[in-house]
Every structure is written in C-alpha cells, then in structure tokens.
C-alpha cells in the first residue's frame, strides 16, 4: 500500500486522519508543523502528501514549494479551514492535486486519495523517470551517465558521473528552469547544510558546469539569494 505524509497541526484532527488511513491500510506518518514535515519528507519515500495550509513555523503552501523541489511529481492534497477562492487558486498554483475544506468526511478524503493515486500510477507507468533530457544531453541516472547526441545523430562518448554529481544533477534536472535553493540541495544530497558541505557542493557545481558545456544551450547558473537553476 502507498505511504502517506500527513502534516497537520491540529492534534485531534491529525490523529483522527492518521488512524483512519492506517485502518484502511495506508502507512501514514504525521508531522505537526511545516519544518517537521519537510524533515520527514526528506528522510522518507512518500507516494502522497496531505498538508494543512495554516500551520506554525512553515505554512502548507511554503512546504509544498519546497517539497516540489525534491519531487515535482508527488501528489499533494491541501486541507484548510478557509473556503476563499484566492486560497484555492494559490493552492493549485503551488502544485496541489486536490483541495479539501474543513470539516470534511473521512470517506470523501479516502476516495480522493484513491482517485489521485490511480491517476498518478497511470502517468508514471507511461514514462521512465530515471532518464532525463537536458537539451541535447541525456542523463541516465541509474547508470550515472551523461551523454550527448550530435546533429548528425552521432552519440559522443558518455561522461561517467560520481554518486554526488548524479544526485545533484538529478535534483537540478527534476527542477529544470526552476530555482533550487542551496540549503535544500545540501539537505537532499549531503544530508545537512553545514559550511564544509556547502564548499563541497560548489566544487561539484563547477564540475557539472564543465560537463554540461557540451550543449551551449544548457546553463547552470547562480540565482542570487536563492541557489542554482539549470536552464535550457
């Protein structure tokens, strides 16, 4: 059965939803604020996320944006006590798959989860997420190979990447043309955002820039105050 991440600061509702989904066979981890939710997401492997919108430390919209940096495809359902149209629109802008206004029935929540997971399964079955196209470059994540096909369809000698180079390039490729924060990249690839890991990451970014120069249309740029962006 799929694994679900529930982030809800209301202890009563959070426990109720967690117990209900567990009873229905879903492994459900629960966090009580946005910071704790992000930490669980980075440590786990989740098939669907359920985020409350109004939470301490980090609201659901901010949490969703950061989660999308690490996994652009994981389905997200927002829970909110508000019914304003503006909140619904903002939720979908940051990548919501569904939106439920409190109070709601557990049965309806379950049906929506099942429907989203069915759609998600169909979309992932038809694509290979382990191969990333970056301009004329092809990144084979499982084999850690970066290759390029020329205009004459001649495949050049592929570049073998290290594990850290592969993990970092995968994160950037998943967020193509979108900024990835330094702190998030460090936590996802190195485990924490210490000073020494930050210096190490700068070295790996320089190496990736060298490899990506094979295609002049591809750039790995610094985004002031944010981090990096892989642009095609």
DSSP summary: helix tally? 8
CATH-assigned homologous superfamily of the largest domain: Response regulator
- Into which percentage range does the β-strand content fall? 15-25%
Give average pLDDT, whole number: 86
- Poorly predicted regions are none
Sequence of secondary-structure elements: EHEHEHEHEHEEEEHEHHEE
CATH architecture of the largest domain: 3-Layer(aba) Sandwich
Number of strands: 12
Shape: elongated
Annotated CATH topology of the largest domain: Rossmann fold
Helix share bin: 40-55%
Straight-line distance between termini: 37 Å
Structural class: alpha/beta
Tell me the radius of gyration.
20 Å
User: At the first level of CATH, what is the class of the largest domain?
Assistant: Alpha Beta
Main sheet attributes: strand count, strand direction, barrel closure = 5 strands, parallel
Number of domains: 2
> If strands are numbered along the chain, what order do they take across the biggest sheet?
2-1-3-4-5
Question: How does this model look, in words?
Answer:
- Helix 2 runs parallel beside helix 3 and helix 6 packs across helix 8.
- Strand 1, helix 1 and strand 2 form a beta-alpha-beta unit.
- The protein has 2 domains: 123 residues, Rossmann fold; 101 residues, Orthogonal Bundle (Arc Repressor Mutant, subunit A).
- Strands 2-1-3-4-5 form a 5-stranded parallel sheet, sandwiched between helices. Strands 6-7-8-9 form a 4-stranded antiparallel sheet, with helices on one face.
- It is of the alpha/beta class.
- Helix content is 44%, strand content 22%.
- It holds the Pfam family Trans_reg_C.
- This is Response regulator.
